[in-house]
What does this fold into?
Amino acid sequence: MWSDPAAAAALGSRDLATILRAYRAANRLSQEALAVLLGYDKSYVAMIETRKRTPGDVAGRRHIARALGLPFHLLGVTDPDDADFAALVQFGDSVIRLAEIARQSGRVIEAVNELWPLAARLEARAAEGRLERDTLHLLASARLALGVSLGTVLPEERLSGAAAWTGKALVLARHLDDDHFLANTLRMHGNELRKAGRLRAAVARLEYAVAISTTQAGQGAAFALLARAAGDAGLPDQFAGAIEGCRQRLDAATGNELLLNPFTLREIHARGLLAMDRPDEALKVLNTDAGEPAAPQWLIIERVTAGEVLAATGERAGAEEALASAIATAEHRRLPHQLQRAVRAAKHGHLPALVDAGRVALRRLRGLLSPAT
It folds into this structure.
C-alpha cells in the first residue's frame, strides 16, 4: 500500500499524525479499528492524529512501525538491521548494473549469483511491508534482472520461473510512474513469456511496449522482440511490421545494442521465416552479411537457427557444422535452453550423432547446475 502516491507523500512528511490518517484512508479503517490493530485505546489514537499526544519513547514508535509495516527510520527510530539494509540499498543499483554486464558478456551464472542475495533481501523486506517507494523501484529492477538472467540459464521446462520473476517486476512497474522503466519491463517480460510458450500474451505485452517506449532505441528493441514472438506465433502481418520497424530504427542504435543491431535482426528475421515455413527465404536472409554479435550468447542462438534453416533446405553438411558449434559453445557457456534447441534442430534434421552429443552435453550441464544435496 505504501507505493500509492498519496501514501508515499504521507511517508515523506515523516509526521506520525499524517501517516496514521493515510493508513486508515488506504485501508478504510475507523479510528477504533486502528486502535484495535495497535492495541491502544481509541481516544489515544485520536489524540495522536490531532497531534495532542506524540509517542516519544523508542519502544512505542517501534511498535507502531512494526504494526503498520513502516520502515523504522520514518518514525525517528532505528532497527538492528537498518544500517545493513541501508548499505544494501546504496549499492543495489551497482549490483544490478554489474550483473547486467556479466549477463551480456556471457557470464550468466555469475549474474544470477550476484542478483539473488539482493532480490531475496528486498523481497523479505517487502513481505514485512517495510519498503518505501524508491526502494520498491530497486526491488522491481532486481526482479526484472533476475528473471532475465534466469531466462538465459534455465532449461526449457523451467522457463516459466523466469517469466514469473519478470511478471512480478511488471506488477510494481505499473505503479511506479516511470514510462521508460515500464516499457523496458514489458519488453523483458514479453520475451520471457515467449520463451515459456505463452505466445499470444507475449505479443500483447510487446505491442504495448512498442506503443509506450520513450526512445527510438527502446522502440526498436521492442520491435525486435515482437518480431520474434510474432514469428513463433505464426502471425505474418505482425512479424513483417515488426521487422520493418526494426530496420527503420537501426540508425538510432549504437551498433552494440543487444537487440537492435544487424546481427540480431538477421537471426530474428531468419528464425521467424523458418517458423512460418519459409525456409528458402530464411536461408537468403542468413546469407547476407551482418557483422558481429553484440553478446556471445547471440552467436550460439544464431548457430542453432542456421542449423535449423540449413537442415530444412537440405544443406546437411552445413547444418551439422552449425549445430556442432552451437552444442559445444552452449555447454561451455552453460546455456541449457540453447542446447535443447540444438538437440531439437538436430532431431528434425535427422542428425542422430548430434542428437546424442547434445543430450550428453545437456546431462553434464544439468549436473553442474543442479543444487548441491
